[in-house]
Amino acid sequence: MPDSLSLTKITGQKGMSIGEAARRVADLGWTPSYVQEAMTFPTDYKIKKVPRDPMKQVLRSYFPMQEEKDNRVYGALDAALRGDMFRNVQPRWVEWMKLFLAIIPFPEISAARSMAMVGRLAPGEELRTGFTMQMVDEFRHSTIQMNLKKWYMENYIDPAGFDITEAAFGKCYATTIGRQFAEGFVTGDAITAANVYLTVVAETAFTNTLFVAMPSEAARNGDYALPTVFLSVQSDESRHVGNGHSMLMSIIQDPDNHLLLERDLKYAFWQNHAIVDAAVGTLVEYGTTNRDKNKESYAELWHRWIYEDYYRTYMLPLEKYGVKIHHDDVNAAWDRIVKKNYIHKTAQFFSVGWPVAFWRQEAQTEKDFEWFEHKYPGWYAEFGNYWQWYAKLSKKGEKNILFNQDVGYVYPHRCWSCLVPCLIREDMCTGEVDGKLYTYCSTVCRWTHTTAFAAEYEGRATPAMGRFSGRREWEDCYHGWDLADAITDLGFVRSDGKTLVPQPHLHFDDSKMWTLDNVRGNTLGSPLRAIREMTPEAREKHIAEYRAGFTVNVPN
Amino acid sequence: MSATQEPDAATTSAAAGAAKFAGSDSRKFNYFQPKGRRASHYEDMTVDVQPDPKRYLMQDWIISFADGQPAYNENWTAAKSTDWHQFRAVDQEWERTHYQRQSTIVGMIANVVENGRRSGAVTRFDPAWVRVLQNHLGAYKHAEFGLGMATMQAQRYGYTQMVNNAILTNSSYKLRFAQDLTLYLGEIAMDLENFDQDAGKQHWMDDPVWQGVRQSIETIGGCTDYLEQYFAVNVIFEPMVAELFRSGFVMRVAASQNDFMTPAVVSAAEGDYERNLANTVELFHMLVLDENHGAHNRALFNHWLEKHGALAQNAASQLQPIWSEPRVKIAQFTDAIEQQKNRMRAIGSEIGLDVRSILD
To answer: Does A556 touch chain B (CB under 8 A)?
Structure first.
C-alpha cells in the first residue's frame, strides 16, 4: 500500500466543523410568543448577558465518548474481580465506603435536578446545551456510584451496611451532613444553589479532593474499583466547571449582582469546606492503612487544590470584576485544618458515635500515630490517649466510649448550619433566629444561618433565598431514647436481629461482635435541648466550659 | 487483610465468603420491595436514592424554599398518589443502558448518513422533497427541542427517583433527536446547492403551517405542573402531532422521493418514543387505578386531555398542507390522522382514559 494511502483518506468526506455544529445546535431554541416558559425556580440575581458554552460539544460525540468511558469502568471492575482484588483490599478502607457511597449518589442526582433550575434562567440557548449534558452526566454519576456500591456489597467480606444503604442515608448521624450538602444544590435561590454553591464552588474546587484524593487513597489500600469509577466521574467535571464559570461570567457583569455574589461565595466556600473537608479528610486520613510519609497529607492536598488552584487562580481573579473575595475565610479554613485539627476532631467524633453508624470503625494504632505525628506535629499529645481508649473499649463487653465517663470526651453540640458538630470547641458560638437559640461551629456558620439564609441581605430584599428547616439536629430525633432502641429504630442491626451493623473493630467473628445487649442501658440526649433549657447564667457557664475544651484521660 | 489489627485466625481475605458471621450473606439491597420476585439492576440503581420523609428521611428535608416548600413536594403536581414509590420505569434505564442505547443510535445514524452521502444519495433526492426537508423537517426539529427542554424542566419535580429518572431519560432522547435532525440537515446541505439551513427556523417561527405546533409546544413549556408536561408530551403531543409528522409523513413518503436516509434518521425517534410511552403509560395507569385518588386523577387527566388535546388537534390539522408538497404523493393526510387517532385510542385504553372526546 502506498504510504500516502489510508482508510481515512479513502472513506473521509467533508463534514460539519465542531464550531458550526455547536452553533446550529445552539440555534434550536427560540423566544416563545404564544406562552412564556414557566419560571418556577426564582432567583434574586439579574441575568442580562447571554452566557456562552465554552465546551461546544454536541450529543452525537458525547454519547459514544461516555459509552467508551463506561466500557473502561465496567471492564476494570471485571478485571478487579478476576484479579481477586478483595483478597487484598484493606477492610478499614472499604468500611468507610459504606458511608461515602451512601451519601454521594444523592448529591449527584441533585445536581441533575438543579440543571432544570438554571436551564431557564440564562438568556439565549447556548449554555442550555451545556446544562442538558450536565444533567445526563449527573444521572451517570448517581447510578454508576450505586453500581459500585452494589458491587462492593456482593464481593466484600462484610456486606452489612451496604445492604441498607439508602435507608441508612436517610437516618444516620453522619449522613445528615451529606444531605445538607445535596439539598443545598436544589433549594432556595436558583443561582445560589445551582450555580454558585454547586458548580462554582463544589464542583470547581472540592471535587478535586472528593474525586481525586479519594481514588489515590483507595488505590493505596488495594481498591482499584473506586479509582476507575471516580476518575471517570471526575473527567466529566470539566464540563460542569465550564458551565458554572460561564454562568458566573454572565452574572458578574452586572454590579447589582455583586452583593449577592459575595454572600453566596462566602456561604458556599465555608459550607463546602466544613462539610467536604470533614468527610473526605476523615476518609482519606483515617480510612487508610497506608502510612507512607512521602505522600501528601489532606492538609497538603488542600493547600495544592483549594488554596493554590482554586483560591489563587479562580477566586482571586474575580476581584477584577469588583467582587469582594473573603480572603479571611480561606485563611480561617486553612487554619482550621492545620492548626485546629478539624479533620482529626471530625474523625474522633465519628468514632465516638460508632454505635449509631452503619460501618465499622477500627482504632488507630501505633503505626498510624507515627504518621499523624509526622504530618501534624502535636497530634499525639492531643489524640493519642483517645485512640488508645478507643482500642481498649472496642472489645465487646466494654462500656462503649460514647458513655464511658472514664474517657473524658465531651459529646459536642451540633452546628445548626453545616450540621458538622462544633468540634473546634473554642470557636463554638450561639445565635438567635426568631427568638430561638442555636449553636454553631463558627461565626461564619452563624452568619450563614442568621444573615445569609434570610429574607433580606444588607438592606436588600432576597425573597428567593432558602431557609433552614426540618429536624436539623440529629440528636434531637433520639432524645431520651435508650441507645439499643435507637439502633433498632435506625435499622442498624444485622439479620440475626441482635448483632450491630456497626462495630468498633474489624473482627469478622460473631464472638467478638457487639450486640444490642452490649449497648443497652445508655440514654441519648440532645445537646441543643439541654442548652436551651439552661438559665442564662448556667448557659454562659456551660459555653465557657465548652470553649475551654476537654482533656482525655490517660487510659488505665 | 487489615495491616492494623491482628487478623482473625480464620480470616485471611477480605473477599465475600472468607468468613461466616452475622450478616455476612446479606448481599442484596433490602430496603425496598422489588416490583418482581427479585430486584432488577435498574431498581437497585434507582430506588430510594432520592430520599423521602415517608420512607427513611428521619430528619425531614433540611433546607426549604423561602415559602416553606421542601426540596421535593408531592403537591408539585395536581395528580395524587397513595404511594409514588410504586412506579418503576418500564424501560429500566440506568446510566449504562442509557449510554449504550444512545450511542448505538448515534452510530446507526452516522453510518446511514456517511454511506448515503458517499454514494451520492443526497443529490438524487427529489428537489421538491429537498424543500420539504429544508422547510418542514427543519421546522420540526425545534418541536423536538421544545419537548426536550420541557422534560428537562419536569425532571426536577417528581416525588421519587424513579419518576424523575424516567423523565430525565425522556429529555435526553428528545434533545439528542433534535440535534440529530439539526446535524443531519447540516450535512446533507453540503451535498446540495442552495439548501438554506436557516429556513427551518423561519418556518417554525412564521409559517402558518407550524404555528399550531409551536403554540402546542410553548403551552407545554409554560405548564407549572411537571406531570401535566409529561402527560402532554407523551400522551397527547407525541401521538397526535409528532408521530403524525414522523411516521405518517416523513417515514411513509421519503422513499418515494428517492430518500432512504431521512427515514433511518427519523426511525430512531420512533424507537425512543416507544420506550418513553411505555414509561408514561405505566405511571398514568398507576395513578388512574390509585385506590384513593383514581377518580380525582381521571378527572384531572381528562382536563389535561381537553386542554392539550385541543391544541394538538389544531396543530395536526394545520400541518395538512405539507402532505401536498412532495412531488410523488403516496400518503394521504386523512389516512395518517386516522392512524394517529387509533394510536391515541390505544394509549387511552392502556392508561384507562376515554379519549373519544378529543378525537371525534
So the answer is: no
Select from B174, B97, B185, B166 the least CA-distant residue to B143. B174
Q: Which domain holds residue A305?
A: 59-477
- Give the whole-angstrom CA distance, residue A516 versus residue A523: 13
* Identity of residue A271: Q
Q: Is B80 strand, coil or helix?
A: coil
Give the other-Cβ count within 10 Å of B312's Cβ: 30
Q: Which residues in chain B (133-162) have CB-CB distances under 8 A to chain A? A: 141-142, 145, 148-149, 152-157, 161
Is residue A125 predicted with pLDDT exceeding 90?
no
Predicted confidence at residue B229, as pLDDT, reads 98
Angle (nearest 5°) at CA A25 between B311 and B277: 45
What stretches of A185-328 adopt beta strand conformation (E)? none
| Number of residues assigned to chain B | 360
Complex confidence, ipTM = 0.95
Task: Select the residue of A28, A70, A506 nearest B182 (Cβ to Cβ).
Answer: A28
Amino acid at A135: M
Residue A16 has its nearest CB partner, among B22, B96, B183, at B183
- Helix ranges (DSSP H) in A287-399: 298-302, 327-338, 342-352, 366-375, 379-393
Q: Are B165 and B89 in contact (CB under 8 A)?
A: yes
Model confidence band, residue A238 (pLDDT cutoffs 50, 70, 90): confident
Q: Do B44 and A146 touch (CB under 8 A)?
A: yes
Distance in angstroms (rounded) separating the CA atoms of residues A333 and A272: 10
Nearest CA in chain B to A16: B187
Identify the residue among A87, A120, A153, A157 best suited for mutation to test binding to B, counting B beta carbons within 10 A and taking the highest. Answer: A157
Tally Cβ neighbours within 10 Å of residue A397.
10
User: Is pLDDT at A6 greater than 50 in this prediction?
Assistant: yes
In the block, residue with C-alpha cell 477566586: A315
Q: Provide the shortest C-alpha distance from residue B349 to chain A (in Å).
A: 31
Total structural domains in chain A? 1
Q: Does residue A356 belong to any structural domain of this protein?
A: yes
Identify whether the C-beta of residue A222 lies closer than 8 Å to the C-beta of residue A89. yes
Q: Which domains, from first to last, does chain B contain? A: 93-359 (1.10.620.20)
| B176 contact residues in A (CB cutoff 8 A) | 59-60, 63
Give all strands (DSSP E) within chain B, no chain letters. 63-64
Distance CA A88, CA A204 (A): 34
Q: End-to-end alpha-carbon separation of chain A, Å? A: 83
Report how far residue A100's alpha carbon sits from residue A287's, in angstroms, rounded to the nearest whole number.
11
CA atoms within 13 A on the CB side of A166: 26
Distance separating the N- and C-terminal Cα atoms of chain B: 72
- What span, in angstroms and rounded, lies between the C-alpha atoms of B46 and B58? 20
Nearest to A469 among B50, B70, B117 (CB): B70
Q: Are strands A460-461 and B63-64 parallel, antiparallel or unpaired?
A: unpaired
Asked if the Cβ–Cβ distance from A501 to B23 is below 8 Å, we say yes
Q: How many CA atoms lie within 13 A of B209 on its CB side?
A: 21
* pLDDT, tens digit, 9 for 90 and up, residues A174-216: 999 999 999 999 999 999 999 999 999 999 999 888 888 899 9
- In this structure, the strands spanning A460-461 and A467-468 are unpaired
